Amino acid sequence: xxxxxxxxxxxxxxxxxxxxxxxxxxxxxxxxxxxxxxxxxxxxxxxxxxxxxxxxxxxxxxxxxxxxxxxxxxxxxxxxxxxxxxxxxxxxxxxxxxxxxxxxxxxxxxxxxxxxxxxxxxxxxxxxxxxxxxxxxxxxxxxxxxxxxxxxxxxxxxxxxxxxxxxxxxxxxxxxxxxxxxxxxxxxxxxxxxxxxxxxxxxxxxxxxxxxxxxxxxxxxxxxxxxxxxxxxxxxxxxxxxxxxxxxxxxxxxxxxxxxxxxxxxxxxxxxxxxxxxxxxxxxxxxxxxxxxxxxxxxxxxxxxxxxxxxxxxxxxxxxxxxxxxxxxxxxxxxxxxxxxxxxxxxxxxxxxxxxxxxxxxxxxxxxxxxxxxxxxxxxxxxxxxxxxxxxxxxxxxxxxxxxxxxxxxxxxxxxxxxxxxxxxxxxx
Length: 429
Hints:
The chain is an alpha+beta fold and 429 residues long. The chain has twelve helices and twelve strands. The relative contact order is 0.11. Strand 1 and strand 2 form a beta hairpin. It folds into three domains: 122 residues, Butyryl-Coa Dehydrogenase, subunit A, domain 1; 109 residues, Butyryl-CoA Dehydrogenase, subunit A, domain 2 (Beta Barrel); 165 residues, Butyryl-CoA Dehydrogenase, subunit A, domain 3 (Up-down Bundle), CATH 1.20.140.10. Helices cover 48% and strands 14% of the residues.
């Protein structure tokens, strides 16, 4: 892996491995913390009597990991230096996320809530890019530790975000928000949530949607229930907003230009999501190769059977191709940012990375289960957990059909270079 990446990144990966081996893996073994990763993982993490939310002891363990990673100087790598980070690049984040996922399940890089020793801070990056000086001062540090809920999707509108029905109406110096939001991830812990609402314009139009920072304890803001998912625990709330009042200062970015905020969130997350899926896929491939060499059936190893060889060859080849695309696309994003270019210029390539890598992770996990036989299907091995997590990536941040639609827009000329004619309806789930 290191031969194709800059020397400084290779050195960072080596330092991360030392940190994980000396500080995180031992923590994983303390006080039966391994229960969160062995066959008991789903039950150990989930409070089934409390709406399926994460157990407090599980979230506290993840918080301790983040504290240690922050103290060691790794957690904020992706953030700009003014936010205490290292100004990490898109290529750096792609390489790191692949590397951490390739290590397999563990406290260093949890799948269920995407906690990692190298943090991904999409909400904070939005604040730094679109927020006012006052907003950055008020929320910046808090978002390193708690995050902000992202309220774009609605019960009747996911990828067709421009048709959202949540509305905000001006009343003097305030806005009154009414509507519903679905899959508001992390709402149980977030003190504030980013809520998108139409403030002007007609349904289906990109302009006229505004992003509001709404405190969790605002009157009229209520979590009605949490949706239980294929991968538990859940933190995906169904939220109702009934006459929720916020001031003008709650607007993030420009009034009526909230879709640009949403697009930035999902676009930058897609390449990082793809890198994680790639790492998980390679982990499944490597584990399957090792097992195939060791497992003897009918007097010979599984590795000698073409029915085992060919699927693994296909997956390994696909992983190599996706890795090249992910890294080259991340490098292009960095180059565009360096010259002040529009990151949407490579949105088709980001979509290629995303839908292929997410599909690859599911295919690799499924093949690993098949090669490992009955044990592969059990929860004593990690493949079912990997499959259940990465299966959601084929829907979130824009379903794979949306990614393909964006690529088609670039390929066949249905959109401009930034895909603007199709992007207005492709921001959500």
